[in-house]
Amino acid sequence: MDSNSERTSGLDIRKSYPQPLQPGSSKVTEHHESPELALRKKKARRKRSIKEWFLFTGYLTPSFVGVLVFFFLPLLMLLKTSFQKSASNTEFVGFRNYTRTLTNQSFKTASIDTLKFAVWAVPLAVLLALLLAILLNSGIPGKSMFRSILLNPMMVPVASVVLIWQVFFSYNGVINGWFFDWFGADKIDWLKSDKAQVVILIMFLWKNLGYNMVLFLAALNNIPTEILESAAMDGANAFKRFFSIKRYYLGSTVFFVAIMSLINSFKIFREVYLLTGDYPYGDLYMLQHFMNNAFNHLDYSKLSAGAIVMCIVMIIIVGGMFFAESKLDRDVED
Amino acid sequence: MDNTKQAIRRAAATKARRNVYIETPRYTSYFDSMTDKQREEFFKKEKKKSARAMRLRTAKHNIAMSAGVIVATAVCILAIVPIFFTFLNSFMSSPEIKDNYGVIFQSLSGYNSEGATYMSKTPSLKLVPQYVTLDQYKNLLFMSPTYLLKFWNSIVLVVPIVVGQMLVACLASYSFARYRKKRREVLFFSYVILMLMPFQVTLVPNYMIADKLGILNTSWAIILPGVFSTFAIFLLTKYMRQIPSAYIEAAKLDGASEWQIFTRIALPTCKSAIFALTILLFIDYWNMVEQPLVLLTNADKQPLSVFLSQINEAEIGIAFAASALYMIPPLLIFLWGEEYLVEGISRSGVK
Predict the structure, then answer these.
(1) Rounded to two decimals, what is the model's pTM?
(2) CA atoms of A68 and B209, how far apart (whole Å)
(3) Which of A12, A61, A70 would best serve as a mutation to test chain B binding (most B beta carbons within 10 A)?
(4) Is A87 a domain residue?
């Protein structure tokens, strides 16, 4: 009895926690706290949680203030502008800007192109990176060397990439030269043809595969080897092992890689812009082009309505991904 | 006497029990029925068989491995060729470059001069220059002082952004990792959304805010939004959430204050992540093009990335050297911090 109460009182050494038990107190107070004590405890807990809130909000403050000024406030201004006649004329026009933007032909093309690129680029980036990671993880020699070489393109700056791609893919470029020499194929201006998006896709994959691959390599290394070994003992071949074991461990990484690829698929606009300018041919007219041009033409209401629409779509996509990830996680835990 | 009797009885009982097993019919097999000679032959055959199977397996393994190496090498060559190409070409003399690649840029910049645009010529891709010169570098560094100025501009923009964002992000992500209430999670989600937004979305309001704060056309207009960008927070929070809560509990029991937990436990645990992020951010901002184009209308203040993308077409003679020099800082950082980078990236995607 005595030693028991000593143990309980020895446990809470946090200062703000009230001392509920003295050695030698009766058994009744040990199990059923008096209302007074419960109240005191509750108060202390609330005090502690308030203290905690202040503490961690303090850590967050610098970032929050900055984000508020430079990101949230702009978004609110954007929202406001999207319901105005123009940036200077504050007359409320309802959803007119939205209908104007959504029926705008170039906005439609731009969103379709952007979506098309993302739909191709993100799954390809995930899949190819996964295949590369499996290849490097299969025990081939020189793994770390291959890894650092594949990570290298990530470090090549935009302007250099643009120069290289111009040399390879322009009308009189190297690729056309090779095709002409080998197959006698007709020359095409890659960036002004239907295959323009393929060229940009190649650039995107070239830049991002290394990064994604490193992520997958880490995830593959993280799978407990006992499970794989016992599966191999039971006669599961490599495919079986992948599809019934590794798959479940890769879920959250696939999600993360997909998010990073999505970000990077938006960033590829820089290269497209530098390669093809304000009005690229066909498939390359991205949403960013649309907004850039609206900005240049001082058409702020169209721009803001387009931006808000894009925000909403992004929230839906990312929210869906988060939801899917949390569901996947639950599957793994089961 | 009693003891010996007991021992004898026990022995007898054991024997009896054993006999039960012994009496079970002996297992005879094909192997038993063989003579010694046959047996030897049998062993020989089996050994040969297993040796063949082994050889086949190793051969298969070797073929698979070499196929893997070949594929990996091919991918690596594709990955690295453009970089080598730039560096090797930067040692060509300007006339040689114009000879080799002039056609390309005629077709690019010749929007107006029809006819000349689509001349059918094939450029010669040359990896090895005819004779190695440092002409391009000389021209670049001594003849065009703008280059060095822009280089400096780039550094002045990038270093404060990276340092500032890392400082802000460390604090904020520690808060996000330790204090997980519902409203905070919502705020975190909105941070993720912000991270995903392309720059163009907030282009106009950013412009207006910069105008209001009176920092338009100064480098602050780029540095401040950069510092508060949420990319680093998203990644760092993922790491900080991986810190085992046992560490923090232990530190608390030892009487550490929150600040001490932050500086002595959270930051050192995330060292590799912080290094990796610094590298990633450096690359990202070293590459920025859109922000300076819009927010820094003064050409003298624009960084190298903008300048270089314009130089490519006009002055092909020094473009390769310019590109190579521009590539060097990120590559050096990469070589220096590769271990951290790989480790940092690796841990970000794993739960």
Answers:
(1) 0.78
(2) 12
(3) A70
(4) no
Q: Which residues of B touch A70 (CB under 8 A)?
A: 206, 209, 224-225, 228
**Range of weakest confidence among A42-46, A269-273, B268-272, B308-312:** B308-312
Per-residue model confidence as pLDDT tens digits over B74-129: 988 888 888 888 888 888 877 777 776 766 665 554 444 444 444 445 556 666 67
Name the residue with tokens 């949420």.
B230
How far is the C-alpha of B127 from the C-alpha of A242, rounded, in Å? 41
Cβ-nearest to B349 among A135, A142, A219 = A219
ipTM for the complex? 0.75
Contact of B336 with chain A, judged by CB distance below 8 Å, is answered with no
- CB of B289 less than 8 A from some CB of A: yes
Residues of B in contact with A157 (CB under 8 A): 283, 286-287, 305, 308, 323, 326-327, 330
A102 and A58 fall within a common domain? no
CA distance B98 to B315: 9
Residue A323: pLDDT band by 50, 70, 90 thresholds? confident
Nearest CA in chain A to B293: A292
**Nearest CA of chain A to the CA of B171: how many Å?**
5
Domains and CATH numbers, chain B: 2-57 (no CATH), 90-133 (no CATH), 136-348 (1.10.3720.10)
